[in-house]
User: Fold these one by one.
Assistant:
Number 1:
Amino acid sequence: MIVSSPEYKMGIDMLKGLTLNLPDGLTRSLTITSVDQSVFEKAQGEKVTLPCTFELLEEDEGPLDIEWVFIPADNPEKEQVIIMYAVGRIYNHCNPTEIGRVHFTNPYPRCGDGSLDIMNLKAADTGTYQCKVKKVPGVQSKKIQLTVLVKPAGTKCSIEGSQEIGKDLTLKCASREGSPLLSYDWRRVSGPQELPATSMLNKNTGELLLKNVSQEDSGVYNCVASNRVGTDECSIELNVTPQSVCWVMVM
């Protein structure tokens, strides 16, 4: 049974106290068995399953409580419960910002699987997640680090400087969004595929410096911005023209 109505808030607070405030020296009988992966890296918009499977022992006779706590990377002091299983019920409206996105992987977590599904990941989901399982006299917990990376997006190309023969100019490329570390690569997509011999590329800033340009440097240039979770690109046309000549009439 999933409980989501506001009137359960007081009950949730009471259950949190029962689950977390345990006396020192309590026997740890139950075992969390999902110990392999504790660091996850995902792209924004994807889904992640944070594992928390467990085994109970015969001496674990009390009621089963499972609680997931989230500690944001940008605000470690703001520890918050995001979902709970207690007294045979699931409380999954503990955090309004995650309503509809956070679920137990198994709708019956009492069967030994308290793993957590987070849908439509956001950058703000980056942080530490702690699964806490209690069944008196046993209590165990496991921490998992999740990093949500944002793919490059809104990449734009531009030209800085005069497009006249013999001048120096810079092709610029920048993404509006994207998690570090972003890398930029330029290539020619029309005419000769190689970049001009005099060009200098800064992969970190996305700037391609072209010195002493000639008409042979004209063409369409493509920039690809990339990080560990995706790419984005833009193109721009360079049209190198003869230098303008000013005639001065002498009377």
Number 2:
Amino acid sequence: RRAGNVRFVSATSCCPGSRKLGLVCASNSQSSVIEPAKLPSSPESGSTPKKSSEAALILIRHGESLWNEKNLFTGCVDVPLTPKGVNEAIEAGKRICNIPVDVIYTSSLIRAQMTAMLAMMQHRRKKVPIIVHKESERAHQWSQVYSEETKKQSIPVITAWQLNERMYGELQGLNKQETADLFGKDQVHEWRRSYDIPPPNGESLEMCAERAVSYFKEQIIPQLVSGKHVMIAAHGNSLRSIIMHLDKLTSQEV
């Protein structure tokens, strides 16, 4: 149910030189615990440094978008949330309101950013999510916060195109049912659910995973290793890619 399903991952130090992930999936008002998994090693050192603190990783898929509502292939087209999607994001925020968050990562697409902002507005700590602008030196300078007290009451929001939804190529903007009628149900299912077969001039899940997991390893794992609590608001396929990496799923399992 898009933002209605929140995946919570707590990373806890368990023994020297290693870290474990206790995976918890929150759906509706219930949670279930899944088997622990080791946090992948630091890409720089080849091993995970010792850390006594605990870190949390929260993965949230965006709420319903205007093109979800119309049953259109969206991909990397930048479409906002529907009122229902707004409510889904708010509900997701209520479910994680007691979990600490130090930094937020979203894709460069507005539906993921709206979801992150709306979810954090429900948080009990009432910290203000602020998008970090680094697209140019001027943008970075002009968006600086000069009050240390205000900084303490803020959460940086880092946007990254690498976390964008899978690019659906020539399917973007097409109605999913009409596309199935045109190309055949099996062909469309193969484009959508296979691991390494892309739609025409688009990305396969494998191609999406290459960029999303690389970014996760390079930018987000170091934050977790340092003890930071991280939330990622992104998309079905970029999040599937990260879960595939964390859970060590095969291409068939994912």
Number 3:
Amino acid sequence: MVAQNYVVDLNKPLVFQVGHLGEDYQEWIHQPIASKEGPRFFENDFLEFLTRTVWWAIPVIWLPVVCWFIHNSLQLGLSCPRVALFVAIGILVWTLLEYSLHRFLFHIETKTYWGNTVHYLLHGCHHKHPMDGLRLVFPPAATAILLFPFWNLVKLMSTPVVAPALFGGGLLGYVMYDCTHYYLHHGQPKTEVPRNLKKYHLNHHFRIQNKGFGITSSLWDRVFGTLPPTKEGAKSM
């Protein structure tokens, strides 16, 4: 199903085209098109609808769920300071998960038809069209499906009292991640910290795609040695 010298037609739905690129797929997705107008993915209108999500849907849908889980731990007798502690731990665990997924899953190299197709849906589309505002956050339907195994894993690894606060913290970390990710692409930060974070992330898209996997911070890039070199360091390499 992989075709030699295949040329993607950007005026047609892309998902079932990109697999034909074979080994050329990796080079193709890392030649970004910096247009705010996203491509069509599917011919089918319902499938196309499922791929598009406005950024504000994430806090509107998931923050009440976060509050519900945290409230459960309080109702089960966990003190406020301990709830705050486990929520913070949940957020920290999310940042590691965010980094790990981005580095090891979203940037896996594929060359088969179905490997390229699945990867494009997961993350390749974002690198090809990084300014597509309706495909910057994770679709809520997919998130809801993934929450069940993660919730069961948290219950397995902690106590019934702690689990809701820990899971609520992780989910809050995810909400912060998705909102931050959208802001880094479309926001206009005025202060130094968010401005530097925006530069850091856009550097990952437009200069060095195999470094700088952190979105909400560069913490785990520092820990695991995946900080991108500075422009001066890159010139001397």
